[in-house]
Amino acid sequence: METDVGVSTSEEANGSAAKKKPTVVFVLGGPGSGKGTQCAYIVEHFGFTHFSAGDLLRGEIDSGSENGLMIKSMMNEGKIVPSEVTVKLLQKAMEESGNEKFLIDGFPRNDENRAAFAAVTGIEPAFVLFFDCPEEEMERRILNRNQGRDDDNIETIRKRFKVFLQSSLPVVQYYESIGKVHKIDAARPVEEVFESVKAVFTSINEKVKPHGRVQQKSTLLKLQLKWKMSFLRNGVCKGY
Ligand SMILES: Nc1ncnc2c1ncn2[C@@H]1O[C@H](COP(=O)(O)OP(=O)(O)OP(=O)(O)O)[C@@H](O)[C@H]1O
Ligand SMILES: Nc1ccn([C@H]2C[C@H](O)[C@@H](COP(=O)(O)O)O2)c(=O)n1
Ligand SMILES: [Mg+2]
C-alpha cells in the first residue's frame, strides 16, 4: 500500500504551534460515473477513509432520525438535501474516524454545499477528482447496479442527471477555475480508470516528498531564520 499523500494544504502557517487540518479530496462525477467503485481502490492503496455523502444520508433514513422522511422524499425526487444536514453528517463522520485523510464522495453537489463545508469545517479540499462519463453510460451502469436503491429507477435517474448538470457541474467548473481539478476519463474499464486515478495520487505524493519543492521552500526559510538568530546572538547582525 502506498499511503503517503500528505497533501495538507490547510496547515496553519504560524510556526511551531501549527495545527494540522485533515486532508480532504472531493470526489465528483455524475450519478453512476463510478465514484464509489474507485474510492474503494483508493482506500486500499493510499490509506484514505471514504465517506459517501449519499450513503451517509441513506444511513440517516435507515436510522429513523427526525430528518429521515425529509431526506427520503428529497432523494426520491433527485433533489439535493439542505447543506446543514449533510455537512453535519460529514463532520461527525470525520471526527469519529480517527484518520486525517478523507475522500468525500458525491459532495459538494452544489455551491451551497461547497460554501457550507468551508464555513463549518474551515477545510478546503487538497484537490478534486472529477469522473467524466457520458450520460448514456452512466444510465446503463445505474440500471445494472442492483443495489436496491430507491432512486435507481429511470424517472429519478433522469432527475438526478438534470440536477447534476444544473447544480453540480458548476461546482466542478469553480474548482477547475482555481486549478484544483484532476479530470479522469471514467468511460473505460474499472482497472483502466484506476490506473489514471493512481497516477494522480502518486504524482501528488512525489510533490510532497522531502526533496520536493514544497519541502525545500520551508527548509530554506527555517535555515534563514537559524542564520539570523545566530548572527543576532553573536552581535554581528548588520544587514538583516
Ligand atoms: N468503469 C466502470 N465500467 C463499468 N461499470 C462500472 C465502472 N465503474 C463502476 N461501474 C459499475 O457501475 C455502477 C455504478 O458505479 P458506482 O456505484 O461506483 O457509481 P457512483 O458514481 O458512486 O454512483 P452514484 O452517484 O449513483 O452513487 C456499479 O454497478 C459499478 O459496479
Ligand atoms: N451532497 C449530497 C449528496 C447526495 N445527496 C442526495 C441526492 C442524491 O441524488 C442522493 C444519492 O447520492 P449518491 O449516492 O448518488 O452520491 O443523495 C444530497 O442531497 N447531497
Ligand atoms: Mg456512489
TrEMBL record:
It is found in: Cytoplasm; Nucleus. Binds 1 Mg(2+) ion per monomer. One of its GO terms (molecular function) is phosphotransferase activity, phosphate group as acceptor. HAMAP family: Adenylate_kinase_Adk, Adenylate_kinase_UMP_CMP_kin. It comes from the Eukaryota. Its cofactor is Mg(2+). Keywords: ATP-binding, Cytoplasm, Kinase, Nucleotide-binding, Nucleus, Pyrimidine biosynthesis, Transferase. ATP binds at G32, S33, G34, K35, G36, T37, R145, R188. It comes from Cucumis melo. Its EC number is 2.7.4.14. This is UMP-CMP kinase. Monomer. It catalyses: CMP + ATP = CDP + ADP; dCMP + ATP = dCDP + ADP; UMP + ATP = UDP + ADP. One of its GO terms (biological process) is 'de novo' pyrimidine nucleobase biosynthetic process. It holds the Pfam family ADK. A ribonucleoside 5'-phosphate binds at R58, K79, I80, V81, G106, F107, P108, R109, R149, R160. InterPro entries: Adenylat/UMP-CMP_kin (IPR000850), Adenylat_kinase_CS (IPR033690), P-loop_NTPase (IPR027417), UMP_CMP_kinase (IPR006266). Belongs to the adenylate kinase family. UMP-CMP kinase subfamily.
